[in-house]
Amino acid sequence: MKERDKLIKKLNEAFANCDVEFLAKSVTDDIVWKIIGEKDISGKKEFEKSLDRMKHGGPTEIKVKDIINAGEKSVVEGIVEFYVEPGKKKKYAFCDVYIFSEKDDSKFRELRTYVTQLKKKA
């Protein structure tokens, strides 16, 4: 398995476990997280605040289906489950585009998240 693939899997595990510390160490100070159709989160402090909010009702499981690496970009496709209310989960398909720093390829400077709720079993 390529190093970038290992890092992408660790990042997704960190999102699933709301591991704010690991994720904060994995971004540049000028990180931009674009949740397409929803909002943009700019800067490391805002990124960390968003991650802290995810601890309350965030993802319960993330299954990575595919990873594609090209230069400074990595694209991840998968399924994520969230608790929408106590005892009730919903599944979403997602595609994340990570754009890594040119200076430090262990940190990403931009994340574009595309997500849609699944109506049928995936």
TrEMBL record:
Entry superkingdom: Bacteria
Classification via SUPFAM superfamilies: NTF2-like
Domain SnoaL-like: 9-102
Alphabetical list of InterPro entries matching this protein: NTF2-like_dom_sf, SnoaL-like
Coiled-coil intervals: none
Pfam families: SnoaL_2
Protein name as it appears in the record: Nuclear transport factor 2 family protein
Organism encoding this protein: Christiangramia aestuarii
